[in-house]
Amino acid sequence: MGFENRAARVAAMMCAVMALAACGGGGSGGNTQAPAPAPALTLTSDSLSGQAIEGSSPIAISLTGATAASGTVTWGLSPSLGTLSGTSATGAVYTPPGMGSLTVPTVVTITATPNDGSAATLQFTITLLPFGIAGITPAVGDHVDVTVQPMVRFTRAIAPAPSASSATLASPIATVPATIAVSGSTLTLNPATPLVWGGHYTISLTSDISSTVGQALTPTSISFDVAAPIWSAPAQLAAPTFTTGTPVVAMNKFGHGFAVWQQDTDGTGTWNIRAARFDLGTRAWSTPAALHSGNHSQVAPVVAADVSGNAIAAWTEDAGNFVFNVYAARFVVAQGSWGPATLIQTVLGQTAQSPQVVLDADGNGTVVWQQYTGSGLSLAVYAARFDVASGSWNPAVELDPGTGATNPQIALDASGNAVAVWERASNGAVAQIAAARWSQSSGTWGTAQVIQLSTLRGLNPQLAVAPNGDATVVWTQAESNGTLTIQASRRSPEAGSWSAPIALTPATGVNGANWPQAQADPAGNVIVLWYQYRGVGLYSVDSARYDVASGQWSAPVHIETLQLAISPFSWAPTLVVDAAGNATATWGRDAGASIYNAFQARFDSHTGAWSTASSLSGSVSVPDRVFTTVDAQGDVLATWGVRDIYAFQTPWWALLTGP
After folding, report:
1. pTM for the model
2. What are the phi and psi torsion angles at 99 (to 5°)?
């Protein structure tokens, strides 16, 4: 018989064997007759194991130990799934039911009863299996590595070229690009990028998957989890001779990281910029390198990295007479070193401050900063771009010539378009929130516009830009009753304009809410984090989430309560979001005696909940905010400063990664 194209073996197990009774002679000492062969049911093939798949080939059954002399045999099938044919005193043929007949495994019993009474009823069972899933790796409940390639095993061989949509892999927020490979009865999904530590993933299989004989799969889905990440023990990043500032940090999608900080070079307050490179494979930092030598102070560094592992650091540097200019240096991964420091400020003679930097996927960089105009205390916002093709900086352009443009921030979408946001005050009016957009296609900045509709004071703007260009700006607004609220406005590339701001927090309390932070995930959902006043000496860390599918903001969620004698607003919280929509938040907790410790919590995009807060830094004094960055597989690199009782500060770090 043929059993071609079977994914599972099918066999029958003998359940009862009855020996034929022998006839005795008369008188003692008479000869006895040898017993006849015991009847039994067998199969033509012994390659099966008691299982059959719907739609599989007929199975031949033999009745041995009984001959034609036994007379006819009554055959039975219960329940009536499939057919018995060719029944005789010596055998029968069982044909399993056709494709799509079963939804769950079902046991059928086949019986044979010789009619001459020479043997009791013989029977065996076969478990009928629908075409479906025989197993999956990883199994439900497993916690696997980010490099896992999920495999689904079916009950029989499947057609070799299923459509790309027949098997998909998705995180809670988006589909994960993956290719499909088929070998026999096994389908393997090969993700285009690593999965994310702590991520929850679902494999969806459609009826486009079929067996080689045309059986369509009943659509189904299976979920699994990647192992949860854990924090490494805090470690000192460098051992400087003199005190340092707090290190800022950046990391690209492959885990190439950079930390940059200011460091006292002589013990008298002459600060220079230092940088070190992080190797995710060895979890080690390079020897710090000076980005610009000299005896003029260099302060306020920032850093960003591109996909290839290049980086740009920017800072302000004293040019003499306490006039600070903006400089930048570029790390070239092909050379493995930092290039020369470059003055990128075009209009000189007036102090520039507060630089921020971003890099697009091609390595083009943009730095924004605030700069005095020379007219009293008037401030403008400038931007300069690094062109990777020419390897040079373009002249800086003025984004806002107002009388009080301060605190600029910048972010990019996946196409390299940028959004800058800042505080704008004109003609003695209170500051409001303004924004401008850089178009990658036209190579120009659009006209700045105020996005805060009220005339109330706006401050501390932050923004998040999704890969598709959807932008969200959040800020603190000083209400007329003296409290502070968190406001949000959104802009989509399709709409081309900013939405009316909405309040994420109520206008109640004395100090209200402050220091918002915002990050977007790849699907465009946005998480906002801030400090919330809850009464005398009592603050909390709160969060809200914008759901892109519904277009709605959640109510604020309380993450942790801080029992404080003073405000926690001395340094802002930080927030990063990974490719699966999970978030890591850090903030300061007052330990008394003007000492702050760094704490952290995680948001799970699958459960929609924040974890219990835990210590990140330990009991040491952390005088400034923690800086964090995340790569494509969810590794989070954090840096901060630790200050001793003598006010000597050193740079520290920790890594959140898989076990």
Report:
1. 0.85
2. -60, 140
